[in-house]
Design a protein that fits this description.
The chain is mainly α and 266 residues long. It has helices spanning 2-20, 38-51, 57-60, 69-91, 94-101, 105-111, 115-139, 144-160, 166-170, 178-203, 207-231, 237-252. The chain folds into 3 domains: 2-55, no CATH class; 67-113, Arc Repressor Mutant, subunit A, CATH 1.10.10.60; 122-252, Tetracycline Repressor, domain 2.
Length: 266
């Protein structure tokens, strides 16, 4: 009788404790049947809850849901851009990028084998942006003065972008890496080639002469835009771009079009 009374009291305390502190079950776990062995079943429930990996580091962090591969890649690139712009290549770590993207490092490595691969992917995209925009500016009109203005605006808009992507192209701390240097030089080479084609077609200058003038114009656009951003921000961007475009036009218009007299001012 005494033993039965003691067991009843013990079980009563156990039920009250479970009411106050119920076992925490994983979201998708099915609790074991405790109807026949309530005490052991309750303990087993505690063990199962801990053993499901709910306290892993990845699970403890807020993580994004599953995304299609292309969307995930774009998200990782955006996060990497923010980290590289803020910290530079050498100071940035894959851990920082994974944390910024809200994914685990294994997920990051599924898309990019290493930090350099990620940096080069960003650099390639950033270089393409300014090259494509330069082509669009030159093709937007047949008026050469407007071409100069539109092309100059491309560089000023690029350095003023909130993304800061221009730092990867024009202020990279990894230019000693051949693959990076190749991409950086690609911007100058390809934008200058686009401008040189217009100069050659309109003036009849040789390819070499046209290219030299084009590289000079591209250098003026790039260097002046970066200087404006850091040292002359008191001038509104459109005004700054127009000011330098005016200087460039006053120089390049001295080379007459092939279909105009040498004294022409087009």
């Amino acid at each position: 009788m005494l033993l039965e009374t003691g067991l009843t009291a013990l079980l009563g305390e156990r039920r009250r404790a479970l009411d106050l502190f119920p076992p925490w079950w994983p979201r998708h776990a099915v609790p074991p049947d405790t109807s026949r062995h309530p005490v052991n079943g309750g303990c087993l429930g505690r063990v199962l809850a801990v053993s499901t990996g709910q306290y892993d580091v990845d699970a403890a962090r807020p993580r994004g849901g599953r995304l299609p591969r292309r969307e995930r890649r774009a998200q990782l690139l955006q996060s990497a851009l923010e980290v590289f712009v803020a910290q530079g290549y050498h100071a940035a770590a894959m851990d920082d990028i994974a944390d910024r993207a809200g994914v685990s490092k294994p997920v990051l490595y599924q898309h990019f084998p290493g930090k350099l691969d990620l940096y080069l992917a960003l650099l390639d995209s950033s270089c393409d942006t300014i090259i494509v925009n330069t082509r669009a500016a030159l093709e937007s009109t047949q008026d050469n003065k407007q071409r100069v203005e539109a092309t100059m605006a491309v560089f000023y808009d690029y350095v003023a972008s909130d993304t800061g992507a221009f730092k990867l192209v024009f202020e990279s701390d990894l230019v000693n890496e051949p693959a990076v240097r190749e991409q950086v030089e690609r911007v100058t080479n390809e934008t200058a080639a686009l401008v040189a084609d217009v100069i050659h077609e309109d003036t009849g200058l040789s390819d070499e002469q046209s290219r030299l003038l084009a590289v000079s114009l591209v250098g003026m656009a790039q260097v002046s835009a970066r200087f404006w951003l850091t040292e002359a921000g008191g001038i509104e961007r459109p005004d700054a771009a127009a000011l330098v475009a005016g200087l460039a036009w006053r120089g390049i218009r001295g080379y007459p079009r092939t279909d105009e007299p040498a004294s022409g001012e087009h």
